[in-house]
Design goal:
With 867 residues, the protein is α+β, with helices and mostly antiparallel strands. It is globular, with a radius of gyration of 34 Å.
Amino acid sequence: MTSQEIRQKFLDYFKSKDHLIVPSAPIVLKDDPTLMFSNSGMTQFKDFFLGYKTPTAPRIADTQKCLRVSGKHNDLDDVGRDTYHHTMFEMLGNWSFGDYFKKEAIAFAWELLVDVYGIPKDNLYVTIFEGDASENLDRDQDAYDFWKSHISEDRIINGNKKDNFWEMGESGPCGPCSEIHIDLRTPEEKAAVPGITLVNQDHPQVVEVWNLVFMEFNRKADKSLEKLPAQHVDTGMGFERLCMALQGKSSNYDTDVFTPLISKVEELSGKKYTGILEDEKDIAIRVVVDHIRAVSFAIADGQLPSNGGAGYVIRRILRRGISYAYRFLGMKEPFLFELVTVLQDQMGKFFPELEKQGKLVSEVIKSEEESFLKTIENGLIRVEKLIQQTIADDLKVLPSEEVFELYDTYGFPDDLTRIIAEEKGLTIDEAGFKAEMEKQKQRSKSDSAQKVYDWVVLEEKPETFVGYDQTESETYITRYRKVENKDGEFYQVVLSSSPFYPEGGGQVGDKGMLENAAESFEVLETKKENGLIISLINGLPKDAGAVFYAKVNASDRKNSQANHSVTHLLHEALRDVLGTHVEQKGSYVGPDYLRFDFSHFNKMTEEELALIEEKVNHKIKESIALQEFRSIPIKEALEKGAMALFGEKYGDSVRMIQFGSSKELCGGTHVKNTSEIGHFKITSEGSAAAGIRRIEAISGDKSEEYFKNLEQQIIELSQLLKSKDVVRSIEKLIEENASLKSEVDALKKEKAKGEIGDWKNAYEQKGNKQLLVKKTSLDAGSVKDIVFQLKREIPTSVTIILSDADGKPMITVGVSDDLAADYQAGAIVKDLAKEIQGGGGGNPGFATAGGKNLDGLENAYQKALHI
C-alpha cells in the first residue's frame, strides 16, 4: 500500500462515518500569539474546544501539516539520529465537537487499524490514564472498559500523567488520552522480550502510532483545571509511522514518504544511503530529506526565511540541512532546491500549495543555500585564523567567546568549528560555549518574558466588533486579566462593544482611549487571541464593570486604512504591469507607511515603478466607492474573482473588499472611497528574499508631508546655489568639481614623484634586508603605487609607510620578491596594526591595515624600526 493510498483510506473511512473532510490549515500561524507553527492536528480547532467559535460540523477529519521545532514540542535535534523523529510531519486526525466521545473514538480507531488497514491485533497495545492524586484526577475507567471489548486486558497498560494526559501547552484545552502502540519487531525479538515492557520506552520498533485525546478540561494560568463547556475528541495519528507499519519497514525513512527524496540526494551527491543509524553520511541524508519538507511547506504557506521570529526558525532548519550536506556529503554547491520537484510529485495532489508555489520555493531555497555556503566559506577563514592564534599562544583549547561569536554573529555552525579544531589536535571550551549559549537564551527570555494571569470573567457575553462602522462606542469590560512584562504591569480587557481593530492581515492594531467621567486609560495595542479582541490598557479600572467610552485614535486609523486600501490597488496594478504571477507574500500596514511583499523574480525598472504609481493614483482620482461584502460564502467570493492569499486560513463565510475591478478577501479596515487616500508615492523597491520583491510606500497625510519636505529642500537648495535653476546649477558644480579633482590628482602625482626620489635614498641596511620606515600624509592610493614601485626597484627590501591622511591611521607594507622566504607583509602589518587598534591583511608581498588610534602611529613607527 503506497503512502498516498494510506492517506486516502484514512480520509475515506472517516467520510463514511459522517465526518466532514477539511483541508490542512497552513503550517505557519499568523494570527495566534501563542504559537508560531501548527504543532498538532488540533491547532486549527482550538477556538472550537474553548467555545469561542461554533464548529463547521460536529465531526471533522483531515491530515494536518505539523512542525515541531520550537517551544515545548521541539524535535529538531533528534532528527536524523533515529528512525522516527521529524520536524515536519503529517497528523491524521478525527474530531468530535460535543458529539461522540470515548466509546465511538475507540471503536473507530480499532476498526480502521485492524479491519481496514489489516494490522494484526497481536501487534497492538493500548494505554489509558492511570489518574493523578495531586490533581484529584481519577483513573480513566471508561476508556479501560471500552477497550476491553476490542483487545485483551493484558494489552491495556496504565499510563502516567506525562504519557497519558495530553496538554496543548502551559494553558489551554487538555484531558486524558489513550495511546495505541504498535510492535514492529520480528517474531524472534517478540519471543525474547515481551512488547508490553517496551511501550513508551523509546524503542525504535515499539512506537506510538495514534493518540486518542478526550478533551474534558481547560488548564488555567494558575495551573488549576476547569471543565470545558462540552466533551470533545481530538485524535492524532502519525502518518509517517503508520506508513512504516503498513509497508513493513523498520524506519520511517525506508517508506515511500522519503525514499524518492533519498534517491534524488543519492543521485546528486554520489553517496549511497545504507540506513545505518550511526553513519554520519546516512544521518546527513535523513536530515536533508526531513528538513526540505519542513522548509518547503513553510515557504509555500508564506513564511520566508529571515532573521527573526518564525522566519528565523525556518532559516535555522534550512541551514542545519545545508551544514550536514556540506560536512558529510561533500555538497559545496546549492542542491537542496532540486529536491522540491520530487516533493511536489509526492505530495502536490493532497497539498496544492506545493504545486502553486513550487518555483518560488525553489528560488528561495537556492538563494538561501548560496548565501549560507558563502557564510561557511568565510567562516572557515575565520576559524583558521582563530586556530593559528590559539597555536601561536601555545594553547590547546579554542576560547569560548570566539567560538560563540562565530556561531552567533557569523552563523558558522559550532559543530563544524569543533570538527576542524579536532583535526588540528585542539578542542573548544565546551563549558564556556554552553555558558555563552545560556546567556543568550536568558537575554532572549528577559526581552520577551511575560507573565499572563487568568481571565477574570465579569460577564459571559460574546463581544461585538463595531470598528468597521464607527471609531467610538459605549462599552463595558466583559473580562480582564493582568499582564506583567519588562515594561511593567498592564491589563488586557475584552469589551462588550469594541471599535478597536485587532492586529491582523498586516494591519497594525488600533490604539486609543478607554474612559468615563471617573477614569481614563490609554489603549496601547489591540490583538486577537482565540477569537477574542483584546485591548491592552495601562491600568485597572476601580470599577471594572462600569460603562466606558472607547475611542480609537482617529488620525492613526484614517492613515492606516488609507494605506490598507492602497495595498489592494497596488496589488492589482502590479499584476497588470508585471503579470499574473505576482502574488502578495506579506505586508505591513500602519499609519506612517505601508510595505508590500510580492512574488517577482526581477528588479523593477524605473519605468515600471512610474507606471505602477500612475495606475494607482488614477484609481484614487477616479473616486471609486468601496463595495463591502461583509459576510459572503467563500465559494461565491471566489466566483466573483476575489483574490485569496496562499498561507491564509479562510472560513466558509468571508469578507470581500471591492474597489472597482480590485477584489480581495480581507478583514482590515478601509476607506469608503478611494479619493480619501489622497496620493500614493513609492519610496523604495528592493529584494526581500529570492523571488520576492518589496515595495515601501506612503499615502494620504504622509504623502503630502513628503512633497512639502521635497519642496522645502528645493527652496533651500535654490537659496544656497543662488539660482532657481537648481538642476543646471548642480550640473555646473559637478563639472567644476571634476576639473578641480583632475588638478588635485595631478598635484598628488607630482608630490608622489618627489617622495619616491627621497625615499629611495632613505633605505638602511638592517641584517639581510634594506629597510625603509616612513611617515607621510599621502592618500592610500598614492602610497600603494609608491610601495609597489619601490619593492620592484629596491632589491632585498622591506618598505613600511605609516600614513595619517584625512586624520585616519593607515599602515602599508611591501616586501620585495627576493625576501619572500624570510618576511611576510601580512604578518608584519598585523603586528604593527595592534598599535593603532586596527587590523588588515594582504599577501606575502603587500599588505595594508587601517585603525582607530591615530596617536598609535608613533608606537608603530618605533616598532617598525626594529623589524
